[in-house]
Amino acid sequence: MEIFTIDKVRKTFINGEVEEEILKGINLTLKEGEVTALVGASGSGKSTLLTIAAGLQPTSEGQIIFEGKNMTVMSSEQVRKVRASKFGFVFQFAHLVPFLTVAEQLMLMLDVSESKLKKQEQKREVDRILKLVGMDHRKNAYPSSLSGGEKQRVAIARAMIHKPKVLFADEPTASLDSKRSKDVMSLIQDLTKTLNITTLMVTHDEEMLSYADHIIKMSDGLILYNKDSNLAPKEMA
Ligand SMILES: Nc1ncnc2c1ncn2[C@@H]1O[C@H](COP(=O)(O)OP(=O)(O)OP(=O)(O)O)[C@@H](O)[C@H]1O
Ligand SMILES: [Mg+2]
């Protein structure tokens, strides 16, 4: 099912006296259970598109339709609620809170997402998601004792703990070595399929494209290609 539509989206920034159009009319549809990878040169507008889709900044023109609702006409409080309850985020660095254990990071996220679960149920959810990402044996560990790949697994668990509909990931493997990148990507792919999430992911790494269902290449604020990953030529990245 198509649950996310980016419709004729434009974004203009004003830098001093100069107005610069960074997104020049983007149309994109994302489906449940699929990973869409966004690639393109540095500065082509990938992160801008991702943050606009996630309601972290407004569009200049065009609309974002999520579950049939136009997010661009919602109040900022309504957008915040959608973001907190329906979206998950993963970035290049895990950004874990240094003085909280793995389990506590996830409990905190349940509070932020205004979870209605009782404490006992929250703890069960934390155990369930940690098992899913293969980190249940480290639930009482602090971030400083985890490897980069393990931290990223916890960050993914944190992004998924409130059962979001959409996962936004901006270069989630950029700080990892090749093996850990593959582990993290295959985890994102698995979770997208098994939990039927819609995933939009920015990446620079050509090797990660084999984990995507669609590849969107951006160039200078426009979509250059939009293809099924199995049809994509290797040089596309
Ligand atoms: N808030 C802002 N104000 C002004 N210009 C901005 C702002 N955010 C982004 N830009 C500009 O928009 C362009 C696209 O930035 P964006 O971060 O989307 O690129 P990107 O494709 O994610 O690049 P990278 O691969 O380096 O992360 C850049 O030229 C950037 O300087
Ligand atoms: Mg970027």
TrEMBL record:
Keywords: ATP-binding, Cell membrane, Membrane, Nucleotide-binding, Transport. One of its GO terms (cellular component) is membrane protein complex. Pfam families: ABC_tran (PF00005). InterPro entries: AAA+_ATPase, ABC_transporter-like_ATP-bd, ABC_transporter-like_CS, ABC_transpr_LolD-like, MacB-like_ATP-bd, P-loop_NTPase. Residues 4-236 form the ABC transporter domain. It is found in: Cell membrane. SUPFAM superfamilies: P-loop containing nucleoside triphosphate hydrolases. GO terms for molecular function: ATP binding; ATP hydrolysis activity; transmembrane transporter activity. PROSITE patterns: ABC_TRANSPORTER_1, ABC_TRANSPORTER_2. Coiled coil: none annotated. It is a peripheral membrane protein. The complex is composed of two ATP-binding proteins (HrtA), two transmembrane proteins (HrtB) and a solute-binding protein. Part of the ABC transporter complex hrt involved in hemin import. Responsible for energy coupling to the transport system. Belongs to the ABC transporter superfamily. HrtA family. This is Putative hemin import ATP-binding protein HrtA. It comes from Cytobacillus depressus.
